[in-house]
Amino acid sequence: MKLTINAVNFEIAEHLEKYIDKKTHRYERLLNNEGAAMSLRLTVVKPETNLNKQTQIRITGNGPEMFAEKTCDTFEQGIDLCLEALDKQIERLKERG
Fold first, then answer.
1. What CA–CA distance (Å, rounded) separates 40 from 69?
2. What is the β-pairing status of strands 37-44 and 2-8?
3. pTM reported for the whole predicted model
4. Which phi and psi (to 5°) does residue 43 adopt?
5. Which of 26, 35, 47, 57 is deepest in the core (most CB within 10 A)?
6. Residue whose C-alpha is closest to residue 87's, from 61, 63, 62, 57
């Protein structure tokens, strides 16, 4: 699975890249699709306010596209919430058959 990280309005820190790698690694096995790609878009919306970290995660491949978007205080929190939403989407797809 191809992983792309796009940071908008800030420079991504090394610890955040490691966190993303750790959290998204299991999706390689879960999706088990060589054509699958995951893209993360991390944006600082309004630097002077709370809830200013927007996280968008999109999974594309041979099947239907999956997408989740959350705005939180931290990118780590946004990543966790987006991945939870994507887990639910994947589970629904598996139930359908």
1. 10
2. parallel
3. 0.90
4. -130, 135
5. 57
6. 57
* Domain 2-96, architecture per CATH: 2-Layer Sandwich (3.30)
**pLDDT tens-digit readout, 15-34:** 999 999 999 988 887 777 67
User: What pLDDT does residue 85 have?
Assistant: 97
So where are the chain's domains? 2-96
Dihedral through CA 8, CA 53, CA 45, CA 47, nearest 10? -100
| Alpha carbon 29 to its chain's center | 16
From 4, 30, 29, select the one nearest 87 (Cα to Cα): 30
What's the confidence (pLDDT) of residue 45? 87
Reference 51, options 18, 75, 17, 22; nearest CA is: 75
pLDDT (mean) for 63-84: 95
